[in-house]
Amino acid sequence: MPRDSAKHGPHADEELKHETEGMVRGGGSTHAEEWKQPEPADTPRGSAQMPPERRGGAPDMTAREVEWRSEIAQVLAPLEYPTDRGRILTFLERNHAPDNMIVAMTGLPKDRQFHNVGEIARAIGIHTEQRRI
Description:
The protein is mainly α.
């Protein structure tokens, strides 16, 4: 059985062999920097796995509140501020936001202007930080 590939020449085969040698011998990734490592597939994701001091929320915020506020912030990121309840609901419907988010935003006061996601989160009952360090 020939060792060389029919797709590549001998030089390309040797180069590929050299590039994959670390994976073959070490049995793991060859990335030197930790940030390049892929996230393990079997690890549950979410801020509940994070230590409390790294969650990014106020001390009285639950892990679910931190996640919920983050989801809201991601969905509403393109929205222009200041905004009101009507524009928020229209934006969410046009962008096919999750139903639970649309339902939550229907509880916003009709006559109020919101200047950021934090104000929106507080208006629907999510605890937020009073100030960041």
